[in-house]
Amino acid sequence: MRAPHRRRHEWRLLPGPSAQSAAGRPSRPGPANLPKKIVSPTAKSRDASSLHLWLVCSTRATTPYPHITPAPSLFRARDEAIQRRITPSPRALLPAAPAPMPSAASYLLVNPSKSFSFHRLSPPFPSPRLPARRLHVSCDAPRGSSRSGGGGGRREVIPAGASKAKKQIVFFDAAPPVSQSQQGGDEEGKRRELTKDGKDANAALALARRATKRTLAVLSNLPLAISEMFAIAALMALGTVIDQGEAPSYYFEKFPEDNPVFGFITWRWILTPGFDHMFSSPVFLGLLALLAASLMACTYTTQLPMVKVARRWSFTHSGERIRKQEFADSLPRASIQDLGVILMGAGYEVFTKGPSLYAFKGLAGRYAPIGVHLAMLFIMAGATLSATGSFKGSVDVPQGLNFVIGDVMKPRGVLSVAPDDFNTEVHVNRFYMEYYDSGEVSQFYSDLSLFDLDGKEVMRKTIKVNDPLRYGGVTIYQTDWGFSALSVKKNGEGPFNLAMAPLKLNGDKKLFGTFLPLEDSNSSNSNVKGISMLARDLQSIVLYDQDGKFVGVRRPSSKLPIEINGNEILIEDAIGSTGLDLKTDPGVPIVYAGFGALMLTTCISYLSHSQIWALQDGSTVVVGGKTNRAKLEFSEEMNRLLDKVPELIGANENAVDSKSTAT
Predict the structure, then answer these.
(1) Quick check: 480 and 472 in contact, CB under 8 A?
(2) pLDDT tens-digit map of 169-214
(3) Which of 110, 46, 112, 50 is nearest to 82 (CA)?
(4) Which of 98, 161, 590, 620 is the most exposed place for a label (fewest CB within 10 A)?
């Protein structure tokens, strides 16, 4: 579609009929033809020097057009109107058959003292529909009045009592729609609908802004944030009391409904809200999200505006305003430049503007609360990622056996993604323990080797409690131990590996046992007799005969045989099993970084943000300042700094002081 030509509109003032050229149309106006005052066309006498305001549209497009001027019939209509002493309407002033014009229509609205009705000029030729553009041109005419020489009639355009009047010329490129037509009614309805839709959109936007402002005000409430932190702390304490990650049967047994703890706590209070996995429960994560929203709202509504205000260089030119500060003083016969030098030596950033001075230090203390909030957000984000994106597993592996990491790990949340390290195979080379002199276990160790898919050993390390193995994103902890098997020789035969079974005892003590039959297990006799062996750890084995009588104790490393019921028993070795916990926790680095940033920003927040204003008032310097922390120390510092400002002494006083010193 071809775009319409761009038109540049020019507005000119044309002279009246008395200044017409010989060709029968008005001559082009120049600077000398411009009127000094605008007179009314209703005057009794015709003034040949009077000028009338006309509109000329000059269109410059691809082909230049000549300037269009009104037809002579327009002036005859004006003369007839003057003789009848009536005010001509704009339609009467328009030519009956206008000359060809490049645009669809032109309109003239002359408004000397009151508004006229607006009429449409229908061109005798069809014109394309152009987008309507409305241009306003106003001419300010000074108020004035004069009387004609003959009749003394009063001619004026500006109403009495007004200082100025404006003549407005309104131009349209295209004819406006007729209000009575159906098309005009449709367009008016569309405009009303658009206006209504715009008002509805503005109302909805205003409502959304009010709702956002109220939400931010509620979330940034300090008592609400403190309550959220207390609730989170209470849930964390409850998570340390309730055993986490156990099977449901454990909670059925420990918190039965027929005998509630504290009279009301049963397993339903634990399993229903998910308190058996406290740190990944919806209640705990919801409180973390609410606290994070409160911190962000407080940062946006309070901390950021305070930083913006603190960064401004606010020079004060009023001594009274400076004297209203927390600390204020006056230095007679002092210079503001000397004060600025002393403040710079004390670590202040000093700025001067004419007789005013502004200085500050400790701006980092204003940024520190924002850093504290960000650090807390990092900690909560890391905790949430640990609860919803980690893997965890545990396994008991006898010495000499191996396992694949991916077979042990289980996802903890919806964000858990298995890494490639899960294909690694772990082999337990050796498991051993150390003991105190009393015989109690002091430490236990596991010698582990890691192999990739090609069978190549990629890592080997001996781990112990509080010294885990880390490979890629997987961490292997030493958490427990067990007794897997007992290697025994019977009458020189063997060795036989007898599996050790854990026996249930009251308390935390461990006890393992096994049985060596002395008869053929395939015989029809159901009461098979044999030798019983019990062990509390890997360093000593207690033996009982087939009648259950105590026989003796042997150490696996002693290599001493013992005879029981006519059989020589030799204990070759005690094979232990290592208890390992495996975990992937992508949130741990984020939590550590958050705690480091929290400690750093907490220390920075103790820095005082101090501001000082000064004004040179003649020979006196008015000084004032304030700080957000350590107000008593700030006053002492200001007094100490002001005492260092030198006093200005005139030449006469200096001479007198010199004479007194010489005397």
Answers:
(1) no
(2) 444 445 455 444 455 556 666 677 767 667 777 888 888 888 999 9
(3) 46
(4) 161
- Distance between CA 151 and CA 311 in Å, rounded? 75
- 156 pLDDT tier (thresholds 50, 70, 90): very low
The answer to whether the beta carbons of residues 462 and 448 sit under 8 Å apart is yes
Cβ count near 510 (within 10 Å): 16
Q: How many residues does the chain have?
A: 663
Reported as half-sphere exposure (CB side, CA atoms, 13 A), residue 44 has a value of 9
Rounded to the nearest 5°, which phi and psi values hold at 572?
-80, -50
Q: What is the helix, strand, coil percentage profile of the chain, to 5? A: 30, 25, 40
pTM beyond 0.85, yes or no: no
Buried b (16+ CB within 10 A) or exposed e, 470-492: ebebbebbbeebbbbbbbbebee
- Half-sphere exposure at residue 105, Cβ-oriented, CA atoms within 13 angstroms: 23
The count of C-alpha atoms lying within 13 angstroms of the C-alpha of 275, restricted to the half-sphere facing its C-beta, is: 22
What does each C-alpha distance from 297 to 122, 149, 216, 224, 293 come to in angstroms? 63, 80, 6, 12, 6
Query: Mean of the pLDDT values across residues 310-333?
Result: 85
CA–CA gap between residue 617 and residue 323 (Å, rounded): 13
Distance of CA 661 to the CA centre of its chain: 69
Query: Could you tell me if 596 and 607 are in contact, meaning their C-beta atoms sit under 8 angstroms apart?
Result: no
Pairing of strands 410-411, 402-404: unpaired
- What DSSP string runs through 218-282? HHT-HHHHHHHHHHHHHHHHHHHHSPPS--HHHHHHHS-SSS-BTTTB-THHHHTTTGGGGGGSH
Distance (Å, whole) CA 11 – CA 109: 13
> How far is 375 from 593, CA to CA, in rounded Å?
8
